[in-house]
């Protein structure tokens, strides 16, 4: 006799993957997330493969994880998947100090970001 399970937050035709503590600023990560929003997953993977941004590798891994979740956990057809949402959140910020002239110091902030990708199965249009 345990407590009842939480209801599923996503619709039945959706799956999600989350990457936490990516070592990049949320602003830079959002530029790459913008690149894949609303696209079919095959096209989004191709765009990330040839992107010159360093963080595109981690975004691609997260997208592949969302696709695998959709296929294995929710029995969705991967040929009909579209990137429904790709949103970025702030993570922690490491604070460091950089030595400057006259015995002073300047604060350096090293931000982290979180990435959530939601894929949705859309019926193929004939």
Question: Can you walk me through this structure?
Answer:
- With 126 residues, the chain is of the alpha+beta class.
- It has one domain (14-121): Ribosomal Protein L22, Chain A (Alpha-Beta Complex).
- The chain has three helices and three strands, in the order βαααββ.
- Strands 1-3-2 form a three-stranded antiparallel β-sheet, covered by helices on one side.
- Helix 2 (41-49) packs antiparallel against helix 3 (56-72).
- The chain is flat and about 65 Å long.
- It starts with 13 loop residues before the first strand and ends in a 5-residue tail after the last strand.
- Part of the 50S ribosomal subunit.
- One of its GO terms (cellular component) is cytosolic large ribosomal subunit.
- Keywords: Ribonucleoprotein, Ribosomal protein, RNA-binding, rRNA-binding.
């Amino acid at each position: 006799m345990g407590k009842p399970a939480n209801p599923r937050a996503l619709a039945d035709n959706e799956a999600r993957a989350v990457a936490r503590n990516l070592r990049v600023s949320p602003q830079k990560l959002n530029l790459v997330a913008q690149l894949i929003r609303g696209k079919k997953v095959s096209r989004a993977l191709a765009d990330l493969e040839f992107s010159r941004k360093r963080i595109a590798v981690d975004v691609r891994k997260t997208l592949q994880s969302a696709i695998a979740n959709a296929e294995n956990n929710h029995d969705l057809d991967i040929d009909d998947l579209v990137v429904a949402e790709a949103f970025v959140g702030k993570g922690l910020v490491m604070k460091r100090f950089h030595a400057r002239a006259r015995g002073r110091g300047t604060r350096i902030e090293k931000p982290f970001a979180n990435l959530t990708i939601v894929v949705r199965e859309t019926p193929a249009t004939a």
